[in-house]
Amino acid sequence: MLALLLDSQGQNAELDSLRRQAKANHKNAVFKCEQCHAFASYTMIDSAERCLEKLVYRMSPSPELNTLYWLTKATIGSNLGLYNEMIAAYDSAFKVIERTQPSIRIQKRVFLQALEDYSLYVECDKGVIQSQQFLDACVKAQEDSLLMHAYLYRARFTECVEGSERMWLSDIESARLLKNNHPAWSGDFFLELGDLHQYFDRIPEVIDNYLQAEQHYLATDNIPRLFDLYCTFSDAYDFINDYERSKHYVLKALNLPGGPPLKERAHHYNSTAWSYYRIDELDSAMFFLEKSVQAFERLSPGNPEIAYPLGNLGLVYKKLGQLDSAVMYSSLAKDLFQQLNFQTRVAEALNNIANVDFERGRVDTAEARFKRALGIARDYADELEEMNAIEGLIKIYAKSNPKQALAYFDDFLELKLALQGKEEALKTLQVEVDRYEQSNKEKITRLQYEAERQSLELERKNLRIINVSIGLALALMLAGFFYYYWYQHLRMTRTLEEMNAVNQRIISMISHDFRGPLNNIKLSLELLQSEEMNRAEFNTLAKDLYRQSADVSLMFDSFVGWAISQKDGYTPYKLKFQWADVLEEVESISKSLADLKNIRIYIQSHSKIDAETDRMAVSLIFRNLLSNAIKYSTHDSSIEISYEREKDVVVTHIKDHGIGMSSQQLRSILNTDKKGSTLGTNNEYGAGLGLRMVIKYINSLNGSINAFSKEGEGTEFIVTLPIKLKDHS
Length: 729
Prior knowledge:
Layout: H1 2-7, H2 13-24, H3 29-41, H4 45-55, H5 63-79, H6 83-100, H7 104-120, H8 124-141, H9 144-161, H10 165-181, H11 186-199, H12 203-220, H13 223-239, H14 243-254, H15 262-278, H16 282-299, H17 307-320, H18 323-340, H19 343-359, H20 363-379, H21 383-400, H22 402-482, H23 485-512, H24 515-528, H25 535-566, E1 575-578, H26 579-596, E2 600-603, E3 610-613, H27 615-631, E4 638-646, E5 649-656, H28 663-669, H29 689-700, E6 704-710, E7 714-722
Parallel strand pairs: 2-4
Antiparallel strand pairs: 1-3, 4-5, 5-7, 6-7
Helix pairs in contact: 2-3, 3-4, 3-5, 4-5, 5-6, 5-7, 6-7, 7-8, 8-9, 9-10, 9-11, 11-12, 11-13, 12-13, 12-22, 13-14, 14-15, 15-16, 15-17, 16-17, 17-18, 17-19, 18-19, 19-20, 19-21, 20-21, 21-22, 22-23, 22-24, 22-25, 24-25, 25-27, 25-29, 26-27, 27-29
């Protein structure tokens, strides 16, 4: 292994390509600048700095060359942990942008790199300012895809600085609207939204969004983005100490067709090894650490990032009892981490070497190293390495200085309790994650229960209506026999015929109108119980089942209203209310159905109209009309609702941009004596019952309804209702 480390002459395809381009285009300094930036990105710090020294005397006024120069300086500062140098370099890059106003291509590169580093260093104030400037630049350049990213960055930094829920939620919704208008961006939207939640440790939301991102990337076979997703997925599970799942996603990333780029592969071989180390599978850990070292050597000789697998090799050899190898690799790692200015990993290496010293009886050397590691850990708030150092000092002072050992033990106990508190919090998060992953099963159970409950409730109410009808008929027959036998004979016969006709229509609707959707729900539930269903099919079917249940619920409400009105049992009930309140309530109820088809609902009027009529009837009228608008609208379209007062009436418009109707279909649906319906754009079931009920209620409220439609362009319903309902005598 050491020979491999010292003698390898590794290759890097990206750097070789840049060298060839720079040589072939020696008059074009852009290629040389790109080469400098690549050196910095691969942590080849000496090469990057020498490269910049050669460029500094021939820098042109070109904004691209200038921004590349400062981005390279910022990358060097970031990789070495030199915070002030990094911030100064970014400030210089943004001054170039402000002075020269380069193309959005150049600005994008600066903004995206800077915002990622601002996130890493929790530089939220600067993040708010620069994400706002990035957003303004995207708007000016009309770059909607970048604008979506800019909104999500601003949401992250705004929440970090201000904690203003309204503002950062508004930015997320703005990004979501852009995603809805461009479904191809869905994967990136959910991945970045998951990153935002991970920044604030909201792990269940992280996993929710990552799963949705995975669904979109798998559907489009986007291998590079899947690699990024699986790596961040691994980090999320690593945060809650679920090492098995963390390892699972790292392996998924490494096993993608074609594999990830070499640098990412080197780091993730190391991550996989670390996952194996923490569950004591040391042979597998050793295998992946050796692959990580080999990948770093192939990447670029002398790259100090090789410290990561070397440090972990030191830990593995210590646990295996091979102390010489443990010291050798930990010492190599310590020097490289010092070069990278990664002090907490320096403390880790020192603790490992000190433990070996203690085992070999070199107590004074071990004490010095533990104390140095303790100082670093406290300076950089690394509680785990602080505990490891204190634990080593307790062992050293246990016999020679019990009082000092006791003092260190108090510190150790305090840290242990603090970490246990964090572990309890992480366990709670894990419970939430597990609960989320079980939620789909729970949704199926709830939907099944709700379907059965609605079916039983429907049967019970229908039996009640039929019993009431029969009771009324018998009462009328007896009254006619005793009081108006001869005079009422003809009237009683007519009443009975009408009642029978209504009952027949009720029974017909129960057997026909409700049988179809209920059978669909039953079939969907049977499919959901299939063990061969993949996740994408499951999600699609669950959404469809939710929509069918909502359709049946609204159909049932409409049916009851229609049945009562058929028996002349409906009397409007006057109530004072705001017209806007009813429409906003209807929009809120229908939003979930609209979201299934990515349909946006806009209420375009917000004037204050005080009404005094039957609020329940008005709500049912617009619920049905909006439900129909959603049903016959295409995906990713919109529905506009507007209203205005004209003297003593309110005129309400509901307009969709769906499949529309012919003039013959329009006349047919407005004829309440005719029955029939068309399947929706998602094959939604409908029997025309809702519209018949709507017209019945509108007539009862002394209003009117009109409609305009054109095939392929959509439909507009116009409902005119009196503001104040006249008293019924």
